[in-house]
Design a protein that fits this description.
single chain, 240 residues, mainly alpha, Muramoyl-pentapeptide Carboxypeptidase, domain 1, 6 helices, 0% strand, elongated, PGBD-like_sf, Peptidoglycan-bd-like, transmembrane, membrane
Amino acid sequence: MSKPPEHGEPYDRTPLEPVRVIRPRRTDALAELIKAFKEAQEREREAGDDRRGTVRPTPPAPAEETTEELPPVPPAPPPGSPLSGPAPQSAPDRTLTGAGSGLRRAAVAVAVVAAALIGFGCALLLPARSAADAASAARPSGNASAATASTVTATVSIDPDGPGTLREGDTGPDVVALQRRLLRIPDVYRDGSVNGHYDGTLKEAVARFQLWYGISGDERGVYGDDTRRALESRTTLDDG
């Protein structure tokens, strides 16, 4: 292995030249592309110039024409001649037309005012009429009152214990028959009087009879249908 020379000693070998590597540049293809692009632009510019050159030129402004005199108007033929046309219609009288339109406007205004007044009057009358109808509906008529009264009377007259029911305060022969029948039931109406008055003693006797014989269809102390049937089935009025 060769030893490198010391510092200051001459180098006796031939120095080596640097090697240059020349690489081909790809600029030719780029130049050709740019050239083709420029040619295409030139062709488009020329085509545009050709198209603009085909535009129709604007015509020059016409020169001012000289004024010519109109021919004279021929005279109108007489009204009776066949050459004359139909007689011109006279224009309508503007005075009459204006008066008619004014009358129509006035009539329309009067109709509008009348309609407004009628509507206002109806609006005032409707609440009063509604109140009157409500009052009449709430107040029953004479026939309805009579029917209601008759229904109430009929309801009151129908005794829940049956027709011919006797209760405390009644008098008459039916009460006498009740007292006589109760006297035939042992210990129910002991020493009771037969005076025809439905008093407290008779009421207690009827209640006692209902309790002893299990009669529950009538009010306690009231001589109704159930109590009557039970008492008449157990007693008679012929033997004494």
